[in-house]
Amino acid sequence: MQIKLIVAAVALALTTSACSKQVTEESTSPQSKTSQLVNSNELTQDLLNKIGQTLDIQYRLITNIPGEHCDKGEGEPRCFVAAIDLTSQFDLNSKDWAIYYSQMRPIQSVVGDEFTITQVQGDLHKIEPAAGFKGFKKGETITIEFRGEPWLLSETDAMPNYYIVAQGLTPVVIASTQLEVDPETGMEVRPYVTAFTDSEAHYKRRETDKLEWAKSHVLYQNNLDTPVDVALAENSILPTPNKLIIKDSKQALSLKPGLKVDFKDVDPAVVDAALQRLARIGVLQTEQGVKTELLPLSSAQVAGEYRLDISADKIQVFAADDAGFSYGLASIAALVNPKTLTVSEVAVEDAPRYDFRGMHVDVSRNFHSKQLILDLLDQMAAYKLNKLHLHMADDEGWRLEINGLPELTEVGSKRCHDLNEDTCLLPQLGSGPFSDTKVNGYYSKADYIEILKYANDRQIQVIPSMDMPGHSRAAIKSMEARYRKLMAQGDQEAANEFLLSDNEDETVYSSIQYYNDNTLNVCMESTFNFIDKVIDEIAVMHKEAGVPLNLYHIGADETAGAWIESPLCKAFVANNDKGVTSMDELGAYFIERTAKLLADKGIEAAGWSDGMSHTRPENMPAKAQSNIWDVVAHGGHKRAHQQANLGWHAVLSQPEVLYFDFPYEADPKEHGYYWASRNTNSQKIHSFMPGNLPANAEQWTDIENLPFEADDTVQKDESGKVISGPLKESIGFAGIQGQLWSETIRSDDVAEYMMFPRIIMLAERAWHKPSWEVPYQYKGAVYNQQSGFFTEEMRQVQRDDWYRVANTVGSKELLKLDKADIAYRVPTPGAVIKDGKLFANVIFPGLDIEYRTAGGDWLAYEAGAAVTEPVEVRVIAADGKRKGRTLVVE
Q1: Separation between Cα atoms, residue 763 and residue 688, nearest integer Å
Q2: Domain range 37-189, CATH architecture
Q3: Who contacts 836 (Cβ-Cβ below 8 Å, separation ≥6)?
Q4: Rounded to 5 degrees, what angle do the CA atoms 837, 839, 842 make?
């Protein structure tokens, strides 16, 4: 059964794998290969280094418009045409080399006979000279034109760190494909990508696409209604409290002397984080400070409820739990004008709308530092978010040290050019050939325990997630490397104990990220040995941190078509002693069994809604969580209602409004994926009506800016079975969660850019139910742009609310993020030229705008300034230091 792995293990015992910077493509000795070189340029390490240093590569999109050039297949032809231009600085005739690079979109075909491009695994592709290759000539450009699918709409799709390899030589990164950092914005720049310029050919998915490129005039129109009114921010708290009464708006209480906190019976440690945030703003704890009392609240109904009373001579915070006291202090920080350190005399009564107010961070695709997580936890606490969903294992990396399974981090936490994957995983997502890069890494046990304690001190629950059974390639390859190592040592029993793959499985499948080997074999007992081991070891870390593990996210993703040709699975189904009668039931069996395994340990299982929908509810524990990530424009309310009606804790995680790895604005220079939305800015998140998902069809459009309809009435199939319908009257959602997936997010600064300030809007919708939200109709209704449930009066109240929120962010909150050293996105400005005069605006009033003409000096913007074209504009961060991305006024 394990013949192939045994052979590999024997080979491992006889040879030494190359380390991260000395990896060869084949096992043939360098000497034997060198003797075979007969080309005019014999490839030596020095020559390969020279190629890497001087070869110019440009990635160029030609068109997204489908046509006769698209490969024919089922359905509507969809493809893009792109080119890779290679310019050598010297003559080179050798064909004994290959260039590896990450191609995010699958290639249909390559034009011409000079090169081939083949997929290695996932997004890793290999360019090789073909029969028609005549060599490089100094200064001449050779173009590799190819067709891919379905479309390429962002310059950030073109991943960095192409590298060249040759037999027996160390790989060399091609310098022209490395990222640069803009010194003014702090953001990544891709000099190897030819700028997109054509709104039709470069930024339309097809003829029906009505989404406008967010150029300066489009943004100007979008921002035009929002007034610049600092008064709107004066007594504004984000997230918005249930009730705020201004007792004396004219009498400002100065907090420059600080606060003298009387903790009463409250442990100072539980509110220390909230007091630290006040200190960062400039409000310190002092003996001469304003008297601040922490007092009990006997009438509290929900966790986190608090009362805040600010008078001329003292401040009082009333709460019944640690979170409530922290949130009361957070509201003081929210009220503070960071420039004057004053607050008005107010009375606040407040409690959260949802118990689950979460943020998900993927550190698997590209690793992010412990410090990023600690900084994020600080800001989550500041805005009253209480769940951190930490996604630590996926196809591209395993990021948590597990006692007894060192291969998970020795192999699975790094990517490098080891095609046997004995020392690392294959490069993906432009990670390059070497393991010593920041996108690789993991949290030690001590790191994770520190994160748990830090979160707990801020009343935040950490939800660990190691995705399975799909999205598990890092674990699978790590355990295969473990198997080979132990077999070479002659320990077959130990080698098989945690194996996750059936080596005789010849199933052909492809995951959504184009892997054909990323799904745990659910028919093997060793798979469940592995899961049990991992969960137990994570639980030990939680116990050591003093924070019990009571919620674990299994992912529940599977890969369609997996296991079909696995001999083990065929035997498993034929045996039928686990209640599985067909291959189609294996996914459900895995989730059900894993959920029960967790329940037996006193841990609630969570999973993504698509995988959870495959289960048989009667086989699931009564208590389970499902993250609903279905797109609202595609009928996403249906599964949300179905799973909530099962009594599960349904957490809304809708991509088009809660995926923070999507672009802020419809611009190909913006970072992020875009399969559900190309413009998820703060105003859109603010508009979200989580209590009535289908009603969002009245105010939103789809990814192509086209209207859609959401039918929430009872739907039946041909047999009369109900397949979708409205929520039951006694049912609601457990909460909402923002998501940051990291495929395109390589650095901590870019991660913060993508999360902030959108996290503030996430907190607003998770904490506060606005008066303008359309009431849910439990009898069902059909919502579209004409249905009229979202009345004009509601829309105006929503606009007024946005004006307050936008001015609060621009006038107060961004400066507080600056003081915390958070690299939030400085927005791009709106601007137009009318009769030779410049008019500009910004989504968050209060931020300064600069402009320049003809590449001259930057000048402070004044409305109606006389200008001569070309004119460029940019926004300045609240503290006056960082700059936003420059736009040309059109």
Answers
A1: 12
A2: Sandwich (2.60)
A3: 866, 867, 868
A4: 160
Please, are residues 147 and 61 in contact by the beta-carbon 8 Å criterion? Answer: no
As given in the structure block, the two tokens for residue 140 are: 């001449």
d(CA 841, CA 863): 9
Rounded CA-CA distance 274/269 in Å is 10
Q: Distance between CA 323 and CA 386 in Å, rounded?
A: 9
CA 430 to mean position of chain CA atoms: 17
Q: What is the largest CA-CA distance in the chain?
A: 89
pLDDT, tens digit (0-9, with 9 covering 90-100), for 476-518: 999 999 999 999 999 999 999 999 999 999 999 999 999 999 9
Q: Quick one: residue 623, left, alpha or beta (phi over 0 = left, psi -120 to 50 = alpha)? A: beta
**pLDDT over 50 (residue 16):** no
- Distance CA(865)–CA(651), nearest Å, equals 49
pLDDT on residue 250: 77
β-partners of residue 173 are: 163
Query: Which position has the higher pLDDT, 385 or 252?
Result: 385
| Angle value at C-alpha 506, between 502 and 510, nearest 5 degrees | 100
Considering the chain, tell me which residue range(s) the CATH 2.60.40.290 domain(s) occupy. 37-189
Residue-wise pLDDT for 199-215, tens only, equals 999 999 988 999 999 99
List the one residue out of 575, 573, 655, 647 whose CA is nearest residue 612: 647
- H-assigned helices in 22-157: 30-34, 45-54
Order of strands, edge to edge, in the sheet holding 172-173? 115-121, 124-129, 98-102, 163-165, 172-173
Structure tokens at 512: 């959504």
- Average pLDDT of the residues in 299-308: 96
Separation between Cα atoms, residue 783 and residue 707, nearest integer Å = 11
The bridge status of strand 314-319 relative to strand 306-310 is: antiparallel
* Burial class of residue 288 in the structure, from the number of CB atoms within 10 Å of its CB (0-12 exposed, 13-18 middle, 19+ buried): exposed
Question: How does pLDDT run across 128-181, given as a tens digit for each residue?
Answer: 999 999 999 999 999 999 999 999 999 999 999 999 999 999 999 999 999 999
758 vs 28, 227, 662, CA distance in Å? 52, 20, 11
Q: 20 pLDDT exceeds 90?
A: no
3-class DSSP assignment, residue 578 = coil
Read off the pLDDT of residues 421-468 as tens digits, 9 standing for 90 and up.
Answer: 999 999 999 999 999 999 999 999 999 999 999 999 999 999 999 999
CATH of domain 356-790: 3.20.20.80
pLDDT tens for residues 569-621?
Answer: 999 999 877 889 999 999 999 999 999 999 999 999 999 999 999 999 999 99
Give the model's pLDDT for residue 15: 35
Average pLDDT over the chain reads 94
CATH 3.30.379.10 domain range(s) in the chain: 243-350
- In the three-class reduction of DSSP (H, G, I as helix; E, B as strand; rest coil), residue 174 is classed as coil
Provide the pLDDT for residue 33.
34
pLDDT band at 11 (very low <50, low <70, confident <90, very high): very low
> CATH 2.60.40.10 residue ranges in the chain?
792-890
CA 305/CA 215 separation, integer angstroms: 43
Helix (H, G, I), strand (E, B) or coil at 818: helix
Are 164 and 97 in contact by the 8 Å Cβ rule? The answer is yes
What CATH code would you report for 792-890? 2.60.40.10
CB distance 326 to 268 below 8 Å: no
Architecture of domain 243-350: 2-Layer Sandwich (3.30)
- DSSP E strands, 546-647: 551-557, 604-608, 624-628
Q: How confident is the model at residue 74 (pLDDT cuts 50, 70, 90)?
A: low
Tallying the residues shown for the chain, one arrives at: 890
Which part of the chain is CATH 3.20.20.80? 356-790
- Report the catalytic residues: 558
pTM over 0.85: yes
Alpha helix stretches (DSSP H) within 89-151: none
